[in-house]
Amino acid sequence: MPSPAPTPPQNAVASQAAQSAAQPQRQSSSLVILDPAHGGTDLGARGASGIRESDLNLYFAAQVKIALEQNGFTVIQTRQGNENPSFDDRSAMANAQRGAVFVSLHVGSTGLPGTARVYVMSDLPSAPETNGLIPWDRAQAPFLPLSRRLGDMVQGFLAQRFKGSPLNAQAAAVRQLRTTAAPAIAVEIASVAVEDRNVLDRMAPGIADAIARGCSGFRPLYVVAAVNPGDRP
Hints:
33% of the residues lie in helices and 14% in strands. The chain is α/β, with parallel strands linked by helices.
């Protein structure tokens, strides 16, 4: 499940790559940074039947990657196996690119089984630049409107596929999103509390399709925002 955002470090500033948060993107959003959350010693949420979120996130990521590539996206995963990159390492993979979107995958510890929720970062106050650099812990702030558009699109497709899912994305303090200088969402599938993992595995095609369709619908909006920054939602 998404981890809450801790108190940001003092005087932290973004790397040069993260300066793109303050600049118009010049490429279409044909690149997706796909983040299977947790990994390594961080197992994430665990169910009584032995289901581990970190394993499920990799399984869902494999399905989502296929669906995105079939829709013309290039996909970079933040982890390929049972490693656990830091939050900042995951963000840096998106911040080093122009025109990327960031999708973090989670499986919740609670929630109505067979549903899925999209989270976007809750409001972040804008912070002044320091020597032309954007504070690392505020990298998401300029992208919040675009993240909400992407989140609502993906959530709309999820709601069509999975009864009981919300109609719109929800705001939360998701640590993976805070430091990401790109449109960024977290998708949380419910839940590890099911007794039979097959219940979750059967959701994978629908989850993958909803994310791919949402990203495809969002792509032209991102292109417009890149060309005309004043038209950003």
